[in-house]
Task: inverse folding
């Protein structure tokens, strides 16, 4: 009835009726699931994306794939957007969410084909989701009171996240850098963790294993004067947001002169404005770099411009000056070196200066990098990523971002969940208990069973990507977990293991968001009984020569 009404209102509309619409939704979800299935787990494979300009991208990150792929199917687009939102909220779990949505629809299709109404199945999904979230709160490992997670536990969390994106050797090396970076910026326990204070700097140089944590700041530009010092020790650092170049007036004005003397006076007065600012900076440098500190260096980092004449003056006085620094780096500098950023040179005192043990410039081809290191108790650090080409650099950067979010989530949640598929197996067993099934009325139990079976897609996929038989492993997991033990999949031996003992942890908030989102998306798609392409664009008259 609705389709005929749409056809009357818009003769060009395309309509899929109930059975066809549901079949299309399920096929679309399963198609997207099959694309991402092989990426899951540390043994997952990579995808090579080629864009319209033949630019290549190697990745196994679910969010990157869904963001960069050109998806035209409307249902797949909806799932992709919801999955990328999962990454924005929780920092990980994109691939797992797509797999769960596809499997929920696959399990539901079995009952729909037997005549069960989708609304009955989704009622079971809602009951199963609520019970699964309760079970997750019981299953997690909680750190309570004043007990903070030790460094070793946080390293296990970071290692679990990084090994799903990188080779084991490189992931183990970057684990230390990621954990130390988060701990460095989280010295004040009362404040939230701001991951923007961890700069991720890419340098196409040497190999990926040369990547490291710099307890300071790395900036992607250097001094603009050849005579400035390239390396200084025990430096005073002045951060400024002051223009040290001639600027045009804000209003439209003009100056007229009738002789060469008047022109020289005009230029001199314009220059005097900048020279007065430079004089105050040089006076500050001379006052602090005297006596016992005469061998100390002086570094000026300015957010605004510095003209060539000013650079020449600063170089003559042995000042290393950088211009047009990023605003975010100005914030990081204060947390890194101390001191206070100044918007004026009128009240410069030694108390506004920061301190760094070593500042030096590194030249790589035509690119210059300035390193600010050996800072005392830095609250902003840099993860320096090195690699032979752009593909490797981008892959490591994506993995490091996920690792940083994983450690941040663990510290803020004060809770972790055993990984390697342990939660999904235990949750399925919990949902299929007769006591819980009896609490769900009528046919909605079918939805609960479908939800429980769909959870197994995670351990099954982990087993398949590891090269093992999924059914053998599921039987072994079920037998070992009968006593309530948390057991997961050992990808090295193809046997079962205790994830907590082996240090394989999942984030609590990632799993919680996954359970909630997959049920909501699958429920919405099952409730769709017609798909109508009847937007305003389809009302336009066809072009000459096209069929009606």
Result:
């Amino acid at each position: 009835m609705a389709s005929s009404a749409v056809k009357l209102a818009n003769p060009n509309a395309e309509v899929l009726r109930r059975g066809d619409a549901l079949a299309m939704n399920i096929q679309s979800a399963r198609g997207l699931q099959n694309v991402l299935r092989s990426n899951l787990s540390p043994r997952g494979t990579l995808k090579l994306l080629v864009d319209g300009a033949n630019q290549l991208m190697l990745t196994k990150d679910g969010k990157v794939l869904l963001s960069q792929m050109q998806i035209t199917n409307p249902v797949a687009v909806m799932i992709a957007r919801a999955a990328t939102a999962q990454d924005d909220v929780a920092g990980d779990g994109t691939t797992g969410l797509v797999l769960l949505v596809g499997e929920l629809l696959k399990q539901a299709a079995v009952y729909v084909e037997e005549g069960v109404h989708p609304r009955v199945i989704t009622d079971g999904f809602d009951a199963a989701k609520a019970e699964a979230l309760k079970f997750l709160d019981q299953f997690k490992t909680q750190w309570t009171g004043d007990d903070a997670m030790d460094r070793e536990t946080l390293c296990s969390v970071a290692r679990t996240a990084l090994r799903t994106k990188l080779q084991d050797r490189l992931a183990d090396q970057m684990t230390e850098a990621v954990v130390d970076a988060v701990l460095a910026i989280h010295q004040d326990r009362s404040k939230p963790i701001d991951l923007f204070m961890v700069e991720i700097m890419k340098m196409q140089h040497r190999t990926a294993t040369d990547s490291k944590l710099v307890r300071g700041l790395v900036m992607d530009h250097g001094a603009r004067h050849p005579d400035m010092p390239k390396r200084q020790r025990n430096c005073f650092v002045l951060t400024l947001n002051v223009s040290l170049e001639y600027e045009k007036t804000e209003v439209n004005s003009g100056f007229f002169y009738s002789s060469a003397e008047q022109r020289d006076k005009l230029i001199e007065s314009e220059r005097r404005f900048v020279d007065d600012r430079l004089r105050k900076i040089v006076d500050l440098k001379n006052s602090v770099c005297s006596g016992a500190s005469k061998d100390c260096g002086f570094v000026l980092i300015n957010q605004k411009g510095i003209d060539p004449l000013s650079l020449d003056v600063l170089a003559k006085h042995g000042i290393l000056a950088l211009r047009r620094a990023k605003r975010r780096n100005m914030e990081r500098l204060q947390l890194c070196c101390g001191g206070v950023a100044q918007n004026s040179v009128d009240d410069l005192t030694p108390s506004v200066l920061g301190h760094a043990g070593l500042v030096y410039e590194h030249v790589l081809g035509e690119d210059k990098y300035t390193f600010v290191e050996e800072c005392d108790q830095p609250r902003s650090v840099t993860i320096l990523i090195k690699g032979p080409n752009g593909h490797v650099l981008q892959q490591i950067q994506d993995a490091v971002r996920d690792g940083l979010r994983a450690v941040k989530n663990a510290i803020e949640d004060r809770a972790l969940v055993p990984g390697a598929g342990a939660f999904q197996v235990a949750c399925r067993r919990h949902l299929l208990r007769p006591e819980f099934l009896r609490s769900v009325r009528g046919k909605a139990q079918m939805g609960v069973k479908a939800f429980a079976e769909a959870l197994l897609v995670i351990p099954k996929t982990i087993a398949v990507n590891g090269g093992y038989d999924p059914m053998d492993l599921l039987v072994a997991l079920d037998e070992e977990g009968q006593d309530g033990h948390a057991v997961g999949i050992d990808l090295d031996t193809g046997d079962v293991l205790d994830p907590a003992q082996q240090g394989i942890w999942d984030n609590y908030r990632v799993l919680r968001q996954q359970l909630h989102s997959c049920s909501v998306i699958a429920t919405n798609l099952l409730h769709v009984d017609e798909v109508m392409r009847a937007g305003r664009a389809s009302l336009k008259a066809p072009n000459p020569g096209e069929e009606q």
Observations:
- The longest strand covers residues 354-364.
